[in-house]
Amino acid sequence: xxxxxxxxxxxxxxxxxxxxxxxxxxxxxxxxxxxxxxxxxxxxxxxxxxxxxxxxxxxxxxxxxxxxxxxxxxxxxxxxxxxxxxxxxxxxxxxxxxxxxxxxxxxxxxxxxxxxxxxxxxxxxxxxxxxxxxxxxxxxxxxxxxxxxxxxxxxxxxxxxxxxxxxxxxxxxxxxxxxxxxxxxxxxxxxxxxxxxxxxxxxxxxxxxxxxxxxxxxxxxxxxxxxxxxxxxxxxxxxxxxxxxxxxxxxxxxxxxxxxxxxxxxxxxxxxxxxxxxxxxxxxxxxxxxxxxxxxxxxxxxxxxxxxxxxxxxxxxxxxxxxxxxxxxxxxxxxxxxxxxxxxxxxxxxxxxxxxxxxxxxxxxxxxxxxxxxxxxxxxxxxxxxxxxxxxxxxxxxxxxxxxxxxxxxxxxxxxxxxxxxxxxxxxxxxxxxxxxxxxxxxxxxxxxxxxxxx
Length: 455
Ligand code: NAP
Ligand code: HSE
What we know:
By secondary structure, this protein is an alpha/beta fold. It folds into three domains: about 15-150 and about 325-345, Rossmann fold (3-Layer(aba) Sandwich); about 155-320, Dihydrodipicolinate Reductase, domain 2 (2-Layer Sandwich), CATH 3.30.360.10; about 360-450, 2-Layer Sandwich (Alpha-Beta Plaits). The protein is about 35% helix and about 25% strand. The chain has helices at about 30-45, 45-50, 85-90, 105-110, 120-140, 155-160, 175-190, 195-200, 210-215, 215-230, 250-260, 325-345, 380-390, 425-440, and strands at about 20-30, 55-60, 80, 90-95, 115-120, 145, 170-175, 240, 260-275, 275-290, 300-310, 315-320, 365-375, 395-405, 415-420, 425, 445-450. Strands 7, 8, 9, 10, 11, 12, 13, 14, 15, 16 and 17 form an eleven-stranded mixed beta sheet that branches. The termini are far apart. NADP nicotinamide-adenine-dinucleotide phosphate binds near residues 68, 97, 205 and 207.
């Protein structure tokens, strides 16, 4: 930064813009998000300068492929493959390259050289946020990451700052745009999983490796970040229970419709009160929710999140959860905050993990379930299934049975499809029941197991 000492008032008149100090901004990555960040930085140059009290000068843009044409907002003259040199001479580093390395080393290096950091990289924060927080503290710089959770939706700031005086009990919602887009397309238009995923990739919603979306890892990273912030404790990524949507079939979607429910990939983080205190849970799985639940109508790549806090009650956040422009909006908000602190002095919020609450294993929680089985169609099968559930203390709420078509000439065994919904039961009891079904001759296959939420 140059020309104006910290703490001095920012000129407000546009004619004085050129007299403002300058902050050097290094941008790591010029893909879906980075391209939009650079567009907004260019288009809103003057307005941002007024809001910050300093001009932002992009000192360079690190990419892998120097030869690719990136449009008017990413001038070739700014492109570099030498990200390491770029971050060492910056006041602010915007990391939108993704992945663990070299992003982690670059950000640590940037902070060591005095730069504040804005990142959208939830994978890195969930895996190694500790090193980043510690580096920010050690070097007296800021670390902002609003864009890492739920795209454009302000969620990190409300949890970390607005609700810092309250006691959050639960955060529940849809935090992955790609999987919501896929499930929505499969439900509303009957699209195949593969076609819907290809569209989500084309629209810039998916991660570089879409397995992270589809298998729930991206949502799990966000759940780990949210739980750590909400409960002032470290929620390790390894402790987040994670199931994706790759096993959700057209039959599951049809069954949900028949039951007046919708399948959504949910992230749930909550306090669990116990006799001797409390523990916390973070989990991600596809779940059936009633059609009348507000989350059921969240379409395309939109995200929506409920926060329940003791004093505030229930809050709902909704908006575009993925895509270049919405995510760039969240990045720019953080850039303004970090830049203001450079100009006017002070620091942004720090990590708080004084509570050190332990996480509770999934097996100790209770959920309602929908279990779909293919069984032999003969007397006693239903009783056998009900008996197994009852043996583990699981109470059935509804059963739906459908005979499957049979080739009579082949002499094959008559088969039926059974869909069982249960009342809330221990996860460990459901696991034990499924173990019995998988070794019982009458149960030909366990087709799906989905939890039921929001009832
Ligand atoms: P992307 O389109 O794949 O862009 C990544 C950019 O980083 C590319 O410009 C790439 O260079 C550059 N890059 C990657 N590895 C590099 C390396 N080792 N050295 C130098 N440059 C490198 O990814 P994106 O969708 O913009 O996502 C970026 C980050 O934002 C990720 O952390 C992602 O999780 C997060 N995020 C994305 C979204 C979204 O909707 N897309 C939303 C929220 C958060 P080349 O162009 O030369 O390949
Ligand atoms: N791939 C992510 C999603 C991007 O689909 O939600 C936003 O974090």
